Amino acid sequence: MLIAGVDEVGRGPLIGNVVTAAVILDPNRPIQGLMDSKKLSEKKRESLFDEICEKALAYAFGECTPQEIDTHNIFQATFIAMQRAVAGLSIPPNKIFVDGKFCPEFACEAQAVIKGDSKIPEISAASIIAKVTRDRQMYALHEQFPQYGFNQHKGYPTKAHLAAIEQYGVLNLHRRSYAPIKARLALGDYLSMMENG
């Protein structure tokens, strides 16, 4: 029985892709310390990332862009990204466990597991490599736009992020359907209308 664990990272942030991963672990090559990625230090996640990629029978990533999130909504975009991750696996699984309350349609049997990232090793592994991948994207974005502090808040709607949007404006990678971004864009439109009116 080949079991794939699937998890997502990045539903809450105001910017960037939602990232999912699917992992099929090798029972003959156990990995110590797998748990919910949020409970691990960044250093531990990074070392587990390398170990998972080296030892897993198969792993793959799926993503949806901010434009896709704005088109479909974050719930549907996460499902699409999960389907992309599973489709990318080099070996088709017999069963899929997805972290959370809901799971999308797959070609094989699938089951949603609440708090699955702390119960099922395959989901834990998926949550770790998805988190590291998205964090790396945020570090790359920080290199381009250091004034926004993406290396600190990873795109989540913190006070610092909202203040940076207020000061420097909305970027192309911001999710326009999310309330704080929508409000900022509406304000910008209103102000330019007042100036030009």
Q: If you had to describe this structure to a student in words, what would you say it looks like?
A:
- With 197 residues, this protein is α/β, with parallel strands linked by helices.
- The chain has one domain (3-143): Ribonuclease H-like superfamily/Ribonuclease H (Nucleotidyltransferase, domain 5, 2-Layer Sandwich).
- The chain is 46% helix and 16% strand.
- The protein is built from 7 helices and 5 strands; from the N terminus they run E-E-H-E-H-H-E-E-H-H-H-H.
- The protein has helices at residues 42-55, 66-72, 74-87, 121-144, 150-153, 159-168, 179-196; strands spanning 3-9, 18-24, 58-64, 95-99, 109-113.
- A 5-stranded mixed sheet has the order 3-2-1-4-5.
- Helix 1 packs across helix 4 and helix 2 packs across helix 3 (74-87).
